[in-house]
Amino acid sequence: MVDYITFSSLARNCGAFVVFFQLQNRCNGKFEAAVDVEDCFVNRRFHYNTMLNDIALIKLKRKIYYQPVFLPRSVNHQERLIANYGRRAEIIGYGVTEPEGKEPCVLQSAYVQIFSRRYCEKSELNKLINTNFKTLLCAGRVQGGTDACQNSCSSFTFKHFFRKIDVRESSDATEGDSGGPLLIYTGRKYYLVGITSFGLECAIRDYPGVYTSVAYYLDWIKQTIWKNKLNN
């Protein structure tokens, strides 16, 4: 049984994590369940310097039942989901809501636009990182202002699990939000299309947040589940 898909850097420290379910307010500690992580499976092609192949699977020590999030069936299916929903996606989590601000007690959410591969590769961000967006997505707002703040490439912090930021006047993913979801809701289902991976600064014009494209790794996900008997 695979319970979570997240980013590779966090999974390398997975023994230290506990997953909380229905954590409505993390400041008062009220939640429905807390489950220890049993094992993590990091993509062997993950490259720490380039952040390519930034994906991992997490297995919990016991079964837990909650609202499922679906995976796209293929790269083409994911592209259709993104196009049909107007390239609009949701990011969620407990990240800070303003630069240098305090982490919120209540779960935050924000909507971002998923940009085309051409836009991502021509962005000011890619002039600095010079990467191929075949396995990546980038998202934010053209004018800046909304972002899920992820870790920067040069300075990683791993203490925040599935963090997410909702900067109302500045929206994108940075600073410790890595591993969180980029979701599309359609047909009464949530689809996981991206995993928050990295970014430079937060919510700045022409510097979108970068996400691992889930559809590109469907074969790896299936093979990892089969090899490790994770569906038991």
UniProtKB/TrEMBL annotation:
Any one Gene Ontology BP term: proteolysis
Pfam family, one: Trypsin
Keyword check for Disulfide bond: yes
GO molecular function: serine-type endopeptidase activity
Subcellular localization: Secreted
PROSITE patterns attached to this UniProt entry: TRYPSIN_DOM, TRYPSIN_SER
Sequence ranges assigned to domain Peptidase S1 in this UniProt record: 11-226
Protein name: Peptidase S1 domain-containing protein
